[in-house]
Each structure stands twice: as C-alpha cells, then as structure tokens.
Write a structure and sequence with these properties.
alpha+beta, Creatine Amidinohydrolase, three-stranded antiparallel beta sheet, 15 strands, binds 2-amino-4-trifluoromethylsulfanyl-butyric acid, binds cobalt (II) ion
Length: about 260
C-alpha cells in the first residue's frame, strides 16, 4: 500500500490535532491520583476534547466503548476505562487520539499513581521512554523504517532484557487512525520502506518486564502480559521532514532525552 505524503496544508492540520492530543495528556496528569477511576479520567478527557471542537477517536472505533485507552500495570494496551479505582504505586498508560478537522493525532504517556513507583517499575518506564526516543532518532528522509524498531529492540530487548511486544505496531496516521506503513518495534536494520518528507506515523513501543507475549481478555480489547508482569508504553506522532523529523505530539514538560 502506498504511503501518503502530506501536503503543507495537511501538515498544518496534523500539527493542530497532534498539539490538541498532547494537551490532553498535560490536562489529565493532575487527576491521575489514588482513588480516581479510569472512567472518571475517560470522562474528563472526553469533555476536554469535545470542548476543543474535536472528536475522541477511540470512541466507537471498531466498537471500542470509551474515548481513551487506560492500561494499568500488566495491561499492555487498549485497556478500557471502567470502575476500577487506581491505587498508589500503579502505573498507567493513557493513550489519547483526537480527530480535528479530519485529521488524527495519537500519543500516550505513562503516569505513576501517587508519584512513587517501585524501582523496577521506574526502570521499566525509563527504558520505555528512552527506547521511544532512540526509535525517533532513526527517523529521516531516505532512512529505513526497520531501523526504528531495530534501535528499540537493541536497547530495551538486548541491552535491558525486557520483552518488546511485536503483536502491536506503530502506524501511519493522517486522515485515518491506522494506515500504512506499519512501524514494527522489533524491526531489522536496513529493512523496510524508505521514509520520505511528508510521511506521518506513530512510534509506540510496548515494553514488558518479562515475556513479550500478550493475551487478549474476553472484552475483545484489553491486551495483558501473558505472565502478569508489568508493561509500559509511550507514543508520539512523528512527521518526516527534509532535515529529519518533527515530533508533532511534543508538549512542554514532556520527557525527552538530554
Ligand atoms: N491509540 C491506539 C494506538 O496507538 C489505538 C487505540 S484503538 C482503540 O494506535 F480502539 F482501542 F481505541
Ligand atoms: Co497509535
Ligand atoms: Co495511541
């Protein structure tokens, strides 16, 4: 499938929807406290997005019943918000996707409930964040898309011994939520399509403490680690530029290297 190249006008719309998605993560952070339910976080994000004149893309997407994904502890991705109240020390990924003016923007962040993670959880989150940025550093014109996942698996998998999930990928994004190309997080060096300026896609590594293997719960969405150990994920939407890349979902205060 051909990979869409965004026009200048398209890129402006991508910047706007991605800026909005990122601002939702900024907005929700202070609400991620012990005792809050994931349904409450969902409602807050939903209202924020709708007030901004956008649509929360997950809602009714292939039947998904909520406006964000909330993935707690052993949940790898696609956790459905519900009545579960968060406990101090839980780790949670909040994944926000917005549709604004016909364009999708997609990003996610890890939060530690109550601020204090175990050393093991903290290390998992740190390695996951760093692996995302090592992947981002591989983005640029004429570079190969396989090098993104290669950088991620070399660092999180080979160096740190974590399980790098291969059942879910990053994805092209624009007028559709998920489109070509697929962005594997366990890619191989020198493999895959060559990136071109104007392409937009996500990178969203899921890194497990133990096995990389996942199971889907009977709700048809929630992916958990097969061994019940922790999983972390962070996601950005990236634009390939003439000079390299632009992280469209960057926000003030977000983690970045250096
Ligand atoms: N935001 C997720 C991603 O990064 C997709 C969620 S699909 C949903 O691709 F239906 F679960 F919302
Ligand atoms: Co995504
Ligand atoms: Co997402």
């Amino acid at each position: 499938m051909a990979v869409e190249i965004k026009s200048k006008a398209d890129i402006e719309k991508m910047r706007a929807t991605c800026r909005l998605a990122a601002s939702v993560l900024e907005y929700i952070e202070p609400f991620v406290k012990p005792g809050v339910t994931t349904d409450e976080l969902d409602r807050l994000c939903h209202d924020f997005i709708v007030k901004a004149g956008a649509y929360p893309s997950p809602l009714n997407y292939k039947g998904f019943p909520r406006s964000i994904c909330t993935s707690v502890n052993e949940v790898v991705c696609h956790g459905i918000p519900g009545e579960r109240a968060l406990n101090a020390g839980d780790i949670i990924n909040i994944d926000v996707t917005t549709t604004l003016d016909g364009f999708f923007g997609d990003c996610s962040e890890m939060f530690v409930v109550g601020g204090e993670a175990t050393p093991a959880a903290k290390k998992l989150i740190d390695v996951t964040r760093e692996s995302l940025w090592l992947g981002i550093a591989e983005v640029g014109p004429n570079k190969r898309i396989g090098d993104i996942g290669a950088a991620i698996v070399e660092f999180a998998g080979k160096k740190h011994g974590y399980g790098v999930v291969d059942a879910f990928c990053g994805h092209g994004i624009g007028r559709q939520f998920h489109m070509a190309p697929q962005v594997s997080h366990v890619g191989r060096r020198g493999n895959g399509l060559r990136m071109k300026p104007g392409m937009t896609f996500t990178i969203e590594p899921m890194i497990n403490e133990g096995t990389h293997e996942c199971e889907i719960l009977s709700d048809g969405w929630t992916a958990i680690t097969r061994d019940g150990r922790l999983s972390a994920q962070v996601e950005h939407t990236i634009l390939v530029t003439e000079g390299g890349y632009e992280v469209l979902t960057m926000r003030p205060g977000a983690w970045r290297p250096l």
